[in-house]
Amino acid sequence: MPSPALQQLSATTWAWMNDRPGWGYSNSGVVASDGQGLLIDTQFTLDSTRDLLRAVATALPGTEISTVVNSHANGDHTWGNQLVADAEIITSELSARHACKEMGPEQLSALCAMSGQSATATYAAECFGHFDFSGVTVTGPTQTFTGRLEVKVGQTLVELLDLGPGHSPGDVAVHIPEDGIVFAGDALFSGAHMVVWSASISACIAVCERLLATGAETFVPGHGPLMGRADVEIVQGRLIAVAESARQLAKAGVPLMEAARRIMAEHAGSWAHPERLFTQTTAAYAEAGAPGVPAGTLAMVEGMAELACR
User: Fold this and answer.
1) CB count, 10 Å around CB of 34?
2) Is the overall model pTM greater than 0.90, yes or no?
3) Contacts of 249 (CB under 8 A, 6+ apart)
4) CA separation for the pair 136, 82 (Å, rounded)
């Protein structure tokens, strides 16, 4: 497996790229100017966050990380926050509100430890059992915002965009206008199917349009390799296709799991983690007003586990 690396994108912007579509291997970034630094997302574990911070210190000696932006509340983007607790940690109001609903490190470790006792626990262990969450103290934001927030990093303007619900109930994108770069968090996945925790696939589609509307040419997804505008359009197009298929199945009264199986057979393609199409199908069913649609993190994991086992 490739090791993560800090990749320079412009004179002021670097991306910490895992280049892996698997669960938990997230991308981060840093904007640095005149000795000031803004970090975009931490990592899933303390060790991986330390690796990130060491790479930043080596590439940018003398740069002080005074601001951290969390793109959303998921642990693989926030559980290293305690290592930058002296910085201002910013996220959207919606993202901060959702954080208390996340499965914590202790809960996730306990679920993985039950591997073999249920399909859900086995699936969780396969996806997350190799991560060491020891020592993690979940550390939340110190500042929230709604709409749009401008932050100056030295002489560089950074624009924070409150995307609202999409991948999660509250997503944030980081736009560096002078460089045409957007850090999208999990509003974009590269080489893997998107997880939809927000119960709104139409919101995910709309977020793609909003990201494109920035005019940026380079997009750093939450997971996987760098993307260009055409890649974002492909993600949007595939979400639209899944949403339309799911709406038709919901209208026909097809049970949710059967619909998810059909959609996976039709739309999996070569992208990683096609079982995540369960979450997209569920979101489309919810928006279609289908009865008995499950909600919540554990229900989504259970559905993905069942789909992955088939």
Assistant:
1) 12
2) yes
3) 259, 262, 263, 281
4) 8
